[in-house]
Write a structure and sequence with these properties.
TATA-Binding Protein, six-stranded antiparallel β-sheet, five-stranded antiparallel β-sheet, 10 helices, globular, Immunoglobulin-like, 4 domains
C-alpha cells in the first residue's frame, strides 16, 4: 500500500550541517517527541509541537557552528542526553537544556564526525580518529584519506568496541583499538553510515552506507572479513546521500529505510524480501536534506518523517490525514482551528513586514550619514564539485540559504557546458577573446524566483588545465557576490578505483631525481583528482585510476626520489610527462625522465574508442536526417513508403534530438582524443606528424577501424 503523507513545515532555524537533528525518545507509546536541532550559528534549539505550533523547550546562545548532534546516555537506557560538536569541543545538554558537559578535545582540526555509545565518545577530524572513554583519551588512528562519518557497532550485541570509518577513498576502515583491522571496498565515496534497522540487525554487525554518488549498500562487519549483503545503484541519477534512518512509517511491523539526498529527495525503501530493499515512495523538497528521522512529532498516534534541510527548515511528512472524515461538528471545529492559525499567521506576517520596513529605513539613514560604513551581508553557500562516472562530466552544485539571483560561470580552459534536466535557470553566453590566457567560457545563469539550488554540468578536456570560477549573487540587499574556485586538473576525467586490469598493454613513465616524497605527492595531487592532499604515511604509495570517458587506466607508484606511472593510453603518459616536467622545473629540480612505449597499447586504445566513435557518428547522421524526413512526412501525409530504418528515425526523433543536445561536442572530443593519440605516439619517437592530421580526419569520417589502425601503423 502506498503511504499517504502530507507535508508540514514546522520551523526554520539557521543553516544546518549533515546529521544535526534528532528526535528525543517519547515519554509513552505513540506520544509526540521533542525535536532537537543544532545550526551553523551555534544555536541548539529544542521544541515540541502543540496544536500545529512549535513550542520551544530551550534554546542556547549562538557560538561556533555545530558540525554534529548526537543523542547519548547509559547503555540500555533511553538515549536522551544531547551532545553537540562545535570546533574542537563537545558539549552535553540535558533534555531540559541544562549544560552538564564541556569537553575540550585539544584536536588541532575541527570535529567533522561524532558517534556516542554509553561512556565512549568517537570523534573524527579530517584525517584523525580519536576514541575517548569518560573523556579520557583511549585510541588514535591516522586515516589515509578524509573521514566523512564514524560509527561503532553496538557493544551490547558485539561485545567489543568496533569503530567503522567512512573514508573518501571509497573504503570503510574497520578499527580495533588504534590499529586497522581491515578495509571494506565500497562502490563510491561513503558519506554517511547507519546501523541496519537502527540496531545493527540480529547480529549487531550490519551497517548501511550511502555514497556521494547516490548508491546505497549493506555490509556485515564480522571479526575477520566483511560480507556484502546488498547494493542499490543510482539508476535514476539522483543526488548524493547525506542521511539515513530506520523507522516503520508504513505500519507493517518492519522498519523501512529512510534516505535523504542532496538534491532534496526523501526516499522510503521497504524490505519486501530479505535480499535487498525496494523503493516504495519518494518525495521531493527543493533543497538538500541534511538530517532525517522517523517518529511521532505533530500529533499523538500519527507517525511521520521529519527532515532538516540545508537552509534550516524542519519539514514533516505526516501520516495524519489532511481532510478528515466526520460530521459537521468536527469540520466546524477544524475550520475554527484553521481560522485561528490563519489569523495568527497574518499577525506574524504584518509584524515582520513592519520590522523589515523599520530596518530598511534605519539602513537607508545610516548609509547616507557621513560616518557610514559599508556592510556586506554574509551568506552561506553549500557547494559540491564532483566527477560523474556515468557520463564523464563534472557536476557543480551550488546551494544558497536564500534565493539565488544569478550565477556567472567563468573558465580559463576549454570546457563544454552540458544540459541538466533539473535546471530551470536561463543561460546566456558572452563572447570571449581569442587571445591566449583569456577566458574560454563566460556564461550567466539567471535563476527563477525562489531558486535556492543550482546544478550545472561541465566536461573538460584532458591535458588542458586551469580554473573554473562561479560568481554567486543571491537576491539580498545590498547586492553582494561570492566567488568560488574549482581546479580543472590535467587528468581531470580520471577517477580513483580499487584495482586495475594488469593484463593490458602498458606504457611506463619513470621519474628519478632529488625530490622528496611530499614533493612528488604534491605533483600527483596537482595532476589527478581524488588524491588526498595530505602526504600518505609510509615510504611509498600506489594509486589506481580509471578514465571515465574512455575506460583506460593508470597506475601511479612513487616514493622519495622516484616515481613510476603506467597506463594503457599513451596520451595519459604524455600529459603526465609534460606537466610533471613543468612542475619540477618551477621548483628547480632536475628530473631524469625515461619511458617505455608499448606499440600494442595504441591499437588497444583505438579499439576502446571505436565503439563510442561509431555510435556518435551514427547518432549525428540520424539527427541530420530528421528535418528532411519530417518535411517528407508533411508533404506525403504518411511514411509507409520509407525504409524501416528511416521510419524508426522518425519514431525516435525526440529521443535522438534530446540525446544529441545532452552531449554537445561529443564527436569532436573523440576526434580530438584520436588525434592526440596519433601525435603522442610519434612524439615519443621524436617525429612531428601534425601535417598528417587532415588525412587522419578523413579516415575518421569513414569510421573504418581496420583502416584507422593501418594508418597509425603506416604513418
Amino acid at each position: 500500500m502506498e503511504p499517504s503523507l502530507a507535508r508540514v513545515d514546522y520551523l526554520q532555524v539557521g543553516v544546518t550541517a549533515q546529521k544535526t537533528m534528532r528526535l528525543l525518545p517519547a515519554s509513552g507509546k505513540k506520544a509526540t517527541q521533542k525535536v532537537v536541532v543544532g545550526d551553523q550559528d551555534g544555536v541548539v534549539t529544542c521544541f515540541g509541537i502543540k496544536k500545529g505550533e512549535a513550542v520551544p523547550v530551550f534554546k542556547t546562545l549562538p557560538g561556533q557552528k555545530i558540525a554534529r548532534l548526537e543523542l547519548g546516555g547509559a547503555l540500555n537506557t533511553p538515549q536522551e542526553k544531547i551532545f553537540v560538536a562545535t570546533g574542537s569541543e563537545v558539549r552535553g545538554f540535558t533534555k531540559r537544556g541544562k549544560q552538564f558537559l564541556s569537553f575540550e578535545t585539544n584536536l588541532t582540526e575541527s570535529i567533522k564526525a561524532m558517534h556516542i555509545s554509553g561512556a565512549d565518545l568517537f570523534l573524527c577530524a579530517s584525517y584523525i580518529y580519536n576514541h575517548y572513554c569518560d573523556c579520557k583519551d583511549q585510541h588514535y588512528f591516522l586515516s589515509g584519506d578524509k573521514i566523512n562519518d564514524v560509527l561503532c557497532l553496538p557493544v551490547d550485541k558485539v561485545k567489543c568496541i568496533t569503530p567503522v570509518l567512512a573514508c573518501q577513498d571509497r573504503v570503510l576502515r574497520v578499527l580495533q583499538g588504534s590499529d586497522l583491522l581491515y578495509e571494506v571496498e565500497v562502490p563510491g565515496p561513503p558519506t554517511v553510515l547507519a546501523l541496519s534497522n537502527g540496531n545493527g540487525g540480529d547480529s549487531g554487525e550490519e551497517i548501511v552506507y550511502g555514497t556521494s554518488d547516490g548508491k546505497l549498500g549493506l555490509t556485515q562487519i564480522t571479526g575477520s572479513t566483511p560480507i556484502h549483503k546488498w547494493e542499490v545503484g543510482n539508476e535514476k541519477k539522483r543526488g548524493g546521500i547525506l542521511c539515513l534512518d530506520s523507522f516503520d512509517i508504513l505500519g507493517d511491523g518492519v522498519k523501512e529505510l529512510l534516505v535523504g539526498r542532496d538534491d532534496g529527495m526523501i526516499e522510503i525503501y521497504a524490505f519486501e524480501s530479505a535480499d535487498e530493499p525496494v523503493l516504495r515512495h519518494d518525495y521531493a523538497l527543493s533543497e538538500s536534506i541534511a538530517s532525517i528521522q522517523g517518529g511521532c512529532v505533530g500529533k499523538d498516534g500519527y507517525d511521520e518523517i521529519l527532515a532538516a534541510t540545508y537552509s534550516g527548515w524542519l519539514t514533516g511528512l505526516t501520516t495524519e490525514p489532511v481532510h478528515r472524515e466526520g460530521g459537521s461538528g468536527e469540520e466546524l471545529k477544524l475550520s475554527q482551528e484553521m481560522q485561528n492559525k490563519i489569523s495568527s499567521l497574518r499577525n506574524e506576517l504584518e509584524h515582520l513586514q513592519m520590522k523589515v520596513h523599520q530596518e530598511r529605513e534605519k539602513y537607508q539613514q545610516s548609509s547616507q550619514s557621513s560616518t557610514a560604513v559599508s556592510s556586506v551581508p554574509a551568506f552561506s553557500v553549500n557547494e559540491k564539485f564532483t566527477l560523474n562516472k556515468d557520463d564523464a562530466s563534472y557536476s557543480l552544485i551550488l546551494e544558497v540559504q536564500t534565493a539565488i539571483d544569478n550565477v556567472l560561470v567563468q573558465s580559463d580552459v576549454p570546457i563544454d557546458l552540458l544540459d541538466v534536466d533539473k535546471n530551470s535557470a536561463v543561460v546566456s553566453f558572452s563572447s570571449c577573446d581569442s587571445e591566449p590566457n583569456s577566458n574560454f567560457l563566460l556564461a550567466t545563469y539567471r535563476c527563477q524566483a525562489n531558486t535556492t539550488r543550482l546544478e550545472l554540468k561541465v566536461r573538460s578536456i584532458e591535458g588542458q588545465y586551469g580554473t573554473l570560477q562561479a560568481y554567486v549573487t543571491p537576491r539580498i540587499q545590498p547586492k553582494t557576490c561570492q566567488v568560488h574556485q574549482y581546479q580543472i586538473k590535467p587528468l581531470s576525467l580520471h577517477q580513483r578505483t580499487h584495482s586495475i586490469d594488469h593484463d593490458r598493454p602498458m606504457n611506463t613513465l619513470t621519474l628519478k631525481g632529488q625530490f622528496s616524497f611530499a614533493e612528488i605527492h604534491s605533483w600527483v595531487v596537482f595532476c589527478l583528482p581524488e588524491v588526498p592532499e595530505k602526504t600518505p604515511a609510509g615510504e611509498s604509495i600506489t594509486f589506481y585510476f580509471q578514465n571515465t570517458f574512455l575506460g583506460t587506466q593508470l597506475e601511479s607508484t612513487y616514493r622519495k626520489g622516484e616515481g613510476y606511472f603506467k597506463s594503457d593510453n599513451i596520451s595519459t603518459i604524455s600529459i603526465l610527462k609534460d606537466v610533471l616536467s613543468k612542475e619540477a622545473t618551477k621548483r628547480k629540480i632536475n628530473l631524469n625522465i625515461s619511458y617505455d612505449v608499448n606499440e600494442e597499447s595504441v591499437r588497444h586504445t583505438l579499439k576502446l574508442i571505436h565503439p563510442k566513435l561509431e555510435y556518435q557518428q551514427l547518432l549525428a547522421k540520424k539527427v541530420h536526417l530528421i528535418d528532411a524526413l519530417r518535411e517528407l512526412q508533411v508533404h506525403e501525409g504518411n511514411v509507409d513508403f520509407l525504409l524501416p530504418k528511416y521510419r524508426s528515425i522518425l519514431e525516435e526523433a525526440d529521443q535522438l534530438l534530446e540525446e544529441y543536445k545532452r552531449q554537445p561536442a561529443h564527436l569532436e572530443r573523440l576526434y580530438g582524443m584520436i588525434t592526440d593519440l596519433f601525435i603522442d605516439k610519434f612524439k615519443f619517437k621524436g617525429t612531428n606528424v601534425k601535417t598528417k592530421v587532415p588525412l587522419l580526419l578523413e579516415i575518421l569520417d569513414g569510421c573504418d577501424q581496420d583502416g584507422l589502425i593501418a594508418f597509425f601503423d603506416a604513418a
